[in-house]
Structures are given as C-alpha cells and as structure tokens.
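pipeline/complex-builder :: batch 7 item 3
reading input block
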Amino acid sequence: MDKYIFLIPLFPLIGFLINGLLGKRFGKGIISFIGCMTVGFSFIVSLFIWKYLLSLEPGHRILTQTLWKWMSVGGLSVDVSFMIDPLSMLMILVVTGVGFLIHVYSTGYMYEDESYWRYFAYLNMFVFFMAMLVLGGNYLVMFVGWEGVGLASYLLIGFWYQGIDNAVAGKKAFVVNRIGDFGFVLGLFLMFWTFGSLSYLDVFPKALELFEQGSLPINSPVLVAICLLLFVGATGKSAQIPLYIWLPDAMAGPTPVSALIHAATMVTAGVYMVARTNVLYTLAPSALLVVASIAAATAFFAATMGVLQNDIKKVLAYSTVSQLGYMFIGVGVTAYWAGIFHLMTHAFFKACLFLCSGSVIHAMSGDQDMRHMGGLAKKMPITYITMLFATLAISGLPPFAGFFSKDEILGKAFSFPYYPMAGKIIWFIGTAGAGITAFYMFRLIFMTFHGEFRGTKEQEHHLHESPANMTVPLVILALLSLFGGWLGIPELIGKFFGHVPNILEGFLEPVFEHSSNIVSQFAHHGHVAEPVEWTLMTTSVVVAIIGISLAYYIYMVHGKELPQKLAQKYAFHYQVIYNKYYVDEIYEFLVVLPIYYFSVFLWKVADAFFIDGIGVNGPAWVVKRTSSIVRLVQNGYVQTYGAFMLVGMVTILCFFIYR
Amino acid sequence: MNAPILTYVTFLPLLGVIFIMAVPQRSEAGKNVIRAIALVASLFTFLASLRIYHAFDASIGAFQLLEDHVWIPSYGIHYKLGIDGLSFWLILLTTFLTPLTILSTWRAIDKRVKEFQVALLVLETAMLGTFVALDLFLFYVFWELMLIPMYLIIGVWGGERRIYAAIKFFLYTAVGSLLMLVCIIGLVYFHNEHTGHLTFDLLQLYGTSMPRIYEILFFAAFALAFAIKVPMFPLHTWLPDAHVEAPTAGSVILAGILLKMGTYGFFRFAMPLFPQGSAYFAPLIIVLSIIGIIYGALVAMVQPDIKKLVAYSSVSHLGYCMLGLYVLTRQGVEGSVLQMINHGISTGALFLLVGIVYERRHTRLIKEYGGIARIVPIYSTIFLIVTLSSIGFPTTNGFIGEFLILLGAFKVNKIAAVFAATGVILGAVYMLWMVQRVFYGQVKNPKNLALKDMNLREVAYMLPLLVLIFWIGLYPNFFLKKMHSSVEHFINQVKVEDVQEQPHNFAAANNILQLGEVTVLKVKE
C-alpha cells in the first residue's frame, strides 16, 4: 500500500495544473468536476490506506515512501519522502474529507464568480500542499507544505484582489507567517546539527537513544531551544499570541476558504507539528510550559475579543484563534492525543460554522454585519439547525463533539504532569474561556437567527435557503459535530455506559507511546480521582450553560436596549475590547513604522548622502575642485608664465644664497 | 588531447561578430538579420557549452579540460584554460542567459542595433574568458575586457543619466582592478623570488609562501576588486545607478553574470591564493555580508522604482552568497554556488519582466501601476512565480540556496545565521509589497487599461527560466552533484589550520546556547 501514498498529493496537484493552465477555457461544470473529484480521489485513496493501516499490528503502523533524493550535501541528505502513521492518517482523512465537502460547497457558493477556475485551481493547490505538510516524512518536506499552504492562503485571502484591502490582508498573512517560519527554520538548523538528520524516523529514535544514554538530559538547553524555535513557527501558522494578528484579517477571503484553510486544516498545522515532534517536546518540559501558557493566554484573550465583534466571520475568526489555543493547551500538557482529538472535532464544527455563515452571507447578498440580521431561522431552517448543532458542539455541551475533546484537554491540563500548579491555572483560564465561548457563540446565534430581521427590505426579499450542493455538506458536517466526539469517549463515561472504548486514543497511542513512557518516568503521576474528574466535567458544562444563559438574557430577553446600555456604562472597556486591545495599532507603531522610517533613513541618508554622496562622489568632487583651481595656472598667457619663471628663479637663488 | 572545447566556447560569440560586421543595418530587414545572427551565434555557443557538460567529470576536484599554450614566454605568461565545478555552472549560466537576453532586445533596442549586438557578443566572450582563464595575466585581460562593452551598453543605450552611471560603473570597477593588477605582479614577484620561476600560472601560484603581512595586503587588494563587483556593502552604490540606467539586456547580464565575477573571484583567486589573509578578514567579510543582506533588503523596501528595488535586492542576495562562501562548510559553499546560479535566473528574470512593462509604458515607477493583474494575467502569473523564487519559496530554486547557506552558516556561527535569516522575512516584505502595489487593487491609471499582455516571443524567453526555477527547486541534486568534489577541494585549500588564532567576533556569542560540549553530536562532513 505504501506505493500509493504519493497519489494523495498527486491528484490535487493535477487538478491544480489542469484548472490553473486551462481552466479559463473550461465551462464551470468541468472545472467543478476536476476540482472536486481530484480531492475526492485523494480521500478515497486515504480510506484504502487507512483500511490497510488498520490491518497491521498497532506497533507497526508506519508506512513510508521515498520518491527521490532531494538534496545531499556533506552530511545533509534529504529525500522527498512520505510517512503515514496513525497521526498523519487521521490528519489526511480530515484534510481530504472535510476538504472534499468544502469543495462541493464551493461549487454553489462561488458559482457566480468570474474567476471560478482560478478559485478551484488555488483550492486544489492548497490541498496538495496540505497533503505534503501532513504526509511529509521529514521536516523539510513538511516545510514545503508549511510554506505552500501559506502561499495558497495568500492567494485565496487576496482572491478578490481588486479590493486592495483583501490583497493587503493576504500579504499580511504571508509576512506574519514568514516571521514564524524564520523561527521554524532556525529550529530545523539546530535540530540538524544536533541529531544529524531532519527525518522523523532518524531524529526521534536518536533523541530517545541519547536520552537513555544520559547524554541528552531532560530539559537540556538545546532541546528546549529546538522546541521553542519550532513553536515560533507554530504561533505564526496557527495564529497564537503574538502572531495571531493575521487570522482575523484573513477573513477577507471567500467564506469556504475561511472554513477550509483558516479553520479546519491549515491553521491546525502547528498543532500537528507539535504532536509530530512529541518526543522532543516531552523531553523539554520548559518548552511545553511555554506552549501551554501561550496557548491558555491565546484561548482566553481571543475569546474576549470575539465577544464584541459584529461581523459574523470575525466572531468565528477569533473563535478559531481561541480554539487553536485549546488544542495547544492539549499538546502543551503532554495530552497530545487530546489536542489532535480537538483538532478533529474542531475541523468538523468550525468548518460547519463557517459554511453556515457563508450560507447566511449568501442569503444576505454579501452582508456580514450581524446587526443587519435577525430572525433568519424561519427563512433558512437547514442552515439554522446545522449551525445550532455546531454551536452546541463548540460550546462544549454533551453529547456534542466539542464537549468530549475540550473536556479531555481541560481535564488533562488540570493534572499537567510536569507542572501541576501551572496546570491548575491553565485549567481555570481555559474553563473561563469556555464560558465566554458559549456566550459569544450564542450571541451570534441569537443575533443572526432569532428576533426580528433588521436589514433592508431588499435584503429581506432576497432571503432564501441555499441550494443542495451547499446544504448537504452542512448536514454532513453537523452530524459529524454531533457524533465525531464519540470516537474519543473518556474512560469515565465509557465505564458508565458499560465499557465503551476510546477508539481514537487507542488508534493514536503508538505515535505517543514514547512520550507517555517518559512522562510516567519523570513526572508526578497525572491521574486524578474519579470524583474530581466528575466535578471538572460538570463545572465546564455549568460554565457553558451560564455563558449561554447570559447571552440569552442580554440578546434575547433585553435584546433591544441592554447591549447598548452596557456599552455605554463600560465605555472604556468596551472600546478597548471592541478595538481588539489595539494590538494591530501597537504593532504598527512599534514595529512597522520604525522599520519603514529606518529604511527610508538608510536609503536617503546612509546610502545616498554618506556612502554615495561623500564616500564616492566626494573624492570626485575634490578632484574636480582641485583641478579647476590648479588649471588657472595654465592660462596660455606668455606674460604669466614669464612671471612664474621669474618668481621661481628668484626663489631658487634665495635658497642657494641663504642656505 | 581532445578538441580545445573551452576555447571554442569562449570565442564562438566572436565568430558571430564577424558575420554581423558584414551586414548593413540601414533597413529594418538588415536589423533583423543582425539580431538573428546574434541569436544564432549565442545559441551555438550554448550548444557548444553543452559539450562541456558531457566532457566534465564531476568526480575530479581539481581543474579539468585544461588547455595550455605559451603566450609571452619571457614573462611566463600562458594561454591556460580550465574549469572546475563552479566555473562549469557559471559558464552554462552565461551561455544560457545570453540568447534569452538577445531575444529580449528584439524590439527594445532599435538604434545602432549592430553595435549593440556586437557589444553583447564581445561581452559574452569576455565573461566566458574570465571564467575559464587559469593564468592571472590572461584572466586580467578578460576581466578588463568585460568593462568596455558593458560601459558602452550603459552609456549608449541607457536611460537619461546614462553617462553618469556608465562613468561611475567604469571608475568604480577600474579602481579595484588596478590595485589588483599591482598585487598580481607582486604575487608573481614573490613566487619568482621564492622558486626562481617566473610564471602567471594560477595553479603554480597557489600556495606561494610569503610573509603573512603581504598575504593580508594582497588579499585586501584582490578582495577590494571583487567586493566592488559583488557588490558588497558599502561598495554597492554603483549598482543601483548602473541598473536603473542600463537597458534591460544590460541589467540582465549585469545582475545575472557580471556580479558573479565578484563571488567567483573570491572563490578562485582571493581565498585560495591567500588563505591567511582570507582568514584574517573573514570576520569583517561575514559582518559586511550580513549588513548587506539586511541593508539591501531594507533599502529595497522603500524604493519607488521597481528596477532599483530589484537592484538593491541583488545586494541582499549576493550577501547570502558571500556568507555561504565564508562559512567554509560544505553546505554553505555549495549553497553559495547554487545561489549564484539562482540569482542569475531569478533576478535576470525579474529584470526581463520589468523590461517588458517598461517597453510598453516607459516608466518603472511603482505608483504608475496598480491593479494590472486583471489586465495582464499571464504577465502577473509569471511575475508572481519569479517573485516566489526570489523570496526563497520551497519548491523553487531560491529556497535551496538560502537553506543550504543558512544551514551551513548556522553550524559555524549561530548569531550570523540568525541575523542573515531575517533577510528571509524582509525579502517577503519588499517583494510582496511591490507585487501588491503593482498588480492588485483597482486600476487607477487609465494608461494601464490598454496594457498588452506578454507576446509569444516574451513568453518564449521567460519559459526556460521558469523551468529552471522549478528544476533547481525540485531536483537540486542534479546541480549539486557536479560541484561536490570541487567544493571539497576548495575548502581544503582555503581552510587555515591555525584558525583558532583568529577568534571569530562571534565566538563568545556562540556559547549562548551552551551547546558545544554535552549535546551537539559531530555531524560527519
């Protein structure tokens, strides 16, 4: 089966090339067919490989394929190679599966667009690079995908490039990601000169070997440095503090793009990377503490920023940043599988949320402002129900998917094996953030679907449910938002229902086996008593319900006047949060402008004035002035020459006489 | 002994010159004949250079395909040619770029066509000669010969301030070259003193023993000449002027090949001839390279003129090349050589692209454009691909070069690598910002509405460049494996044993992460 791995990225690549080079001449039917089917084929191949993988012994579930030797210089030898283990298997299933649904949805959403072919070409290109990222057998192939999805993101955010703001948002995304990649690449350098390879199957065994020999102690500076540098890359790609700023702006792209790239798949690449590198991270607890702390801060602050947004997509954008924070809390507290679990459920419900918002925007003729919406539930029942499912999932109510995954993460944070105290704090912040999440998500539901319609008559007349090629993906994703979590039912609840196994944890176990061993060897045993676990679970549900009730009270019961009143009463806080803590402005002021003016200074003063003006043209000027003085001597008058001669002779005479 | 293939390749363009001389250029037909002859001559040169590809044996680290004839016996001057893994690729780059350049001048150069094509072909011979010469005197002849046609190309067919730019270019380079000439003679003198053998033969001059102070002085003079050509900060200010004023073809050759003369000079002459001097100046050169990388990128960012932006980006890119050479690791040096080729391809392509819109609109100011992606889609797509190559996007050539250089640098000097790597961010900033302002948004200037997309001829000369961009990006081993032996040979030649006596400026900083003792495994070179 390993022979066929390359087909997964190959199909979307072919789709990209065909639609990209010839799409302009095709009809929309052919473009849609090529665009969707190539991803569909990849999904089918993935399913077959999955089936094959399951037939293997759990310990031997690693498939590899090497295509060609990419570069070999001195000790460096990098192949273009793929690796499939349970982790990348799960990722590729999510990427191609959800990707396929979103491609199908796009055939409806983008149908009117004049650059339909370009859209599908880019979307296929994205799936290609995402597959490279996930399937790559070494860090450099991963990096190809890593930057490649960034390019796809850049092109798709700026898809409607005639609006300059969209193009600016695309560039911002690329540049901010580049800042992250700067750290990532340095991490790779350090990794290479430490372990002598960039391949997963070399680096991790080597690290474990050195660890067992005692030459690589736990928390050794080099490992912490590698892990932190790689995490810099993750903060860029996965929108964590301090590099999250590009993601809200990325909403300038078409909504299905936001669903696929900026919610379900690309932005989770950082989480995947940390989980992939779990052996190194587990050996560097300080790095994990940094990861978990930044993640908790991001989860909380992004949630607060989501509270006051009026643009439906912006709410979801901040919610994505916040949810990514939860995933990083998971991987940061060594609960790698839980982070990946949340990654998967989030892919389902967040894709669903975005696609639903797309359906709403479609119905509103492009208007994204929730203040103009209201009462849409009656007009678009399928969108409403599916979005409600996804919202319940993200709010963490049982039995929806988000409940299981988020609860697993928070539970594991509470018992963070390396730093128990910090774990409690992270749990507290995370739980509070979960309450805020429930609040702003239901605020969105209430403002959009309940109450009375607040838009123009024209918009109201136009309201309609979306066509089937848009609603069918919604329904599938909504069902996944409900049932997807059942793959990872915690032991506690499983026991309650009579030994329901935790399928996902078992599936992913071989990937994280070594990490678990190290953790159990070094850390306080991370298991909490059953009553505590029940309490934690109940607490998060209660917090979510409080959040929902509050949203109901403010936006439904007193929806007409209370929001305004609160805004006036807490005007200062309102302004700060409404303007997203002025982070963009602060960056602009502290980073962007200084660099810009410094560059202008370098150009005008250092380059043009000093180096070129004084250094280069200076000598030329001196020569010119000097010669223009000296040349006066040679004026062509015999009298002058005679006078000079006389002066000279007198001088010489004097010299000899008075010597 | 086989046919003297290097001589054939070097002088084939001159054969074209002879034919061109015979054609009158008064009529339009005559001009086309001249252009066609130039194109055919350069294509034949390219085909001939492919013979070198077959004849070249990658397992040999030393020079090969040697040709040696006595030229001026009384001074020990020989006509001696030969190549190694570096000059091999630079020759192919030269013969590859020249026909594309000639194709790009088809419409752009309409006055004095004959003289222009002659200048281009003479320039090609001079460049090829510089890359194959293994006799210092012969090298110097070719080196100076390059100046004249380039001077004319800028001065006669250039823009408004062409005279200023041409003279600046000429004087700048001449100053460096003259000092080098003095030191060539000094080196030969020392060698004669020591061995009683008067020769300009590079192979014999390698390893000439002389007092360390002379090595340092001679290196300084050679390095000055080459650093001006590279150009290294702060000797770069001739470059923006020369590029902006030069016609497109001039810029392409200038950026694509002439700048490589500088790095080539370091690789072939300055470093292996004077290893002690090289080691003495290494910290300074590394610092200047890093300043060049960052400074070039920052200044490029605020340029209002696209061509000037690309010119300053060259300063940044060549900074990588110099850094790679000077870290003296396999990855660094091979990355550097690859980056020389990469820069020739991507920056050459960028200048060609700028030339295409310049021909149509007669302006290169960014603010004159805006929103043209909708009007010229093919052009925009190609421009974006070349941009990606220039900013080192993986799967393109630029990534491989930068990655290898930085990886190699990181081993030797972590702080240097960290600073140099910021150039990767800045590269994305200045290129993408320019792309945004030129291609995206609404069309504001009505003159751009009538802009014509690329025609077949233009696509034809861009296509080979695009192929190479991805070829090097996806299968760099094809290129790297031809240089392994030569690079190893070079490193052994240049590495000074008592390098510890010259502590690196950053040695202290290297210990910041406290890697050295416990954790870092020795990676086999």
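note: Chain A has a mean pLDDT of 91.
queue -> next item
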